[in-house]
Amino acid sequence: MGRLIIVSNRVPAPRERNQPAGGLAVGLKDALRQGDALWFGWSGRQVPEMSGDPTPAIDRVGNVTYATIDLTTAQHTGFYQNFSNGILWPLFHYRVGLMNYSRLDWEMYLSVNAMFARTLRPLLRPDDTIWIHDYHLFPLGQALRDLGVKCRIGFFLHIPFPPWSLVRALPGAELLLEDMQAYDLVGVQTPEDAENLNHALRMNNMAERAQAFPIGIDPVEFRTQAETSMKGTEVSRLRDSLRGAALVLGVDRLDYSKGLPERFKGYEALLSRYPEHRGRVTFLQVAPISRGNVEEYRQLRCQLDELTGRINGAYSEFDWTPIRYITRPISRDVLAGFYRMADVALITPLRDGMNLVAKEYIAAQDPADPGVLILSHFAGAAPELDEAVLVNPYDTDEIADALHQALTMQRPERQTRWTALEKEVCRTTAVSWANDFLRALDGAPVCVSS
Ligand code: ADP
Ligand code: G6P
Predict the structure, then answer these.
(1) Crossing angle between the packed helical segments 411-427 and 219-229, to the nearest 10 degrees
(2) Is 404 a catalytic residue?
(3) Mean per-residue pLDDT, 4-33
(4) Which of 51, 83, 142, 437 could tie 182 with a disulfide, CB 3.0–4.6 Å?
(5) Binding site membership of 75 for ligand 2 (Cβ less than 6 Å)
(6) Over the stretch 294-327, which tens digit does the pLDDT of each residue have?
(7) Ligand 1 atom with least separation from CA of 22
(8) pLDDT digits (tens, 9 = 90+) for 365-398
């Protein structure tokens, strides 16, 4: 059997315990526990300049060989910061007004994709299967085909695919659709994303390629991690510090797609409209800084600093603080215990491809006394996790009502909801997601024969 070649911009550092936050790396790492694989992508490092193409650094850990390349500062700015995260990310999260379009950035995006293809090409064997991930690398399949690669190539988009009427706000958006033609199969997170992408392809007289494959986690491993973490010092310190108050937990990269200001205001509305919770609940938001050099992310950080200060200033008592807000990273092992301890998870993205945190929260619960998941309708996980308390994340009063409902929900209802949710989380795991996609890729009609 041939190898599986994974390509993504973000590659987890194979030997580090503390990984940067992000669903792509977490989901894929969980999925890659079997077979012989090569994972190719960016090293996470920038160098001022480079003569010619980079040479991949190779490291083998278990069944996976990691081959990573550095980017120059100019490539990092144009390809990663500006085009991927300043143009594609907002547009694909339905925030067309935040898109900062520039032709020069698109050129750098294409040139880095071509460079990825040239550096990956010599590592490939004819019987490999290639699986390319996410919006940084739309053109990579075609760039590999241009170099004569005939293997099966699949693509998976981890973020939403909005309706064509919105995507076409990107000048030359048709080129992204043309990029899809180089793939034998394109996977997206939800049936809505698949319908949007296939509709866009039809509108442009191109062949449909998209199918939904919702990504999952490794629930058994995560539950074990949560149980272990409960015995650790961090969880006891957190529990002691709460002094009996209920814990509402949010865990997200510090990203404007996550609906954090609306969430903080929703919590503020709880304190204002349901005063019985004052002093009896604590909201812990863990939001590690992400893409900190992109302007919109900086602005969001200022906004949240201001909101936290305002709400804490207005409602704190000398012995109680309503919001605890952490922008430093916390390791996933510790987080798993925090999830298990939390009475409520408040996960309210304005748009999200999937949202693995919601699935992790469910996996981490104690079946005898589970917490309540409050989830945005606009998370890709919502259709699967419809036994959660679903909210419109723009409606701060609805968030407040949902918090009140969750904080006062009796154990039998919490157990009934959790049992249904846990069944869903165990139904599509990281491994079954990868297997389903790869099986479909294997059976997909070959799209390129020359
Ligand atoms: P996104 O991919 O947009 O970041 P997801 O919810 O799908 O959103 O994935 C986030 C992943 O990153 C989860 O697996 C979560 O456990 C992990 N994560 C989030 N915050 C942290 C953190 N502070 N430290 C470590 N891992 C984190
Ligand atoms: C989302 C994207 C991933 C990305 C991750 C972290 O999950 O879909 O492609 O890796 O966020 O973002 P970063 O910019 O740090 O890679």
Answers:
(1) 130
(2) no
(3) 82
(4) 142
(5) no
(6) 999 999 999 999 999 999 999 999 999 999 999 9
(7) 4
(8) 999 999 999 999 999 999 999 999 999 999 999 9
How many C-alpha atoms does 74 have within 13 Å on its Cβ side? 7
**58-92 core/surface letters (b: 16 or more CB in 10 A; e: else):** eeeeeebbbbbbbbbeebbbbbbbbbbbbbbbbbb
pLDDT at 32: 80
Ligand 2 site-directed mutation target among 43, 138, 158, most atoms within 8 Å of CB: 158
Query: What band does 448 get if pLDDT is binned at 50, 70 and 90?
Result: low
Among 179, 193, 343, 352, the active-site one is: 352
> Residue 431 Cα, ligand 2 centroid: separation in angstroms?
20
Closest CA to 194 of 185, 205, 183, 181: 185
CB-defined site of ligand 1, < 6 Å:
21-23, 26, 251, 253, 286, 288, 329-330, 332, 335, 354-357, 360
Q: Hey, which of 133, 356, 425 would you mutate to test ligand 1's pocket, going by the most ligand atoms within 8 Å of its Cβ? A: 356
- CB of 145 closer than 8 Å to CB of 124: no
Those residues whose C-beta lies under 8 Å from the C-beta of residue 49, and which sit 6 or more positions away, are 72, 73
CA nearest to 8, candidates 42, 31, 53: 42
Residue type, 379: A
What pLDDT is attached to residue 450?
39
Q: Does the structure show a pLDDT above 60 at 449?
A: no
Q: Identify the residue whose C-alpha is closest to ligand 2 atom 2.
A: 24
Q: What predicted TM-score, i.e. pTM, was given to this entire model?
A: 0.97
Provide the ipTM.
0.98
Instruction: Write down the catalytic residue from 158, 179, 255, 343.
Output: 158
| Domains located in the chain, CATH noted | 4-212 (3.40.50.2000), 219-427 (3.40.50.2000)
Task: Give CA–CA dist 266/355, Å, rounded.
Answer: 20
Ligand 1 centre and the CA of 443: distance in Å? 32
Residue % of the chain over a pLDDT of 70: 99
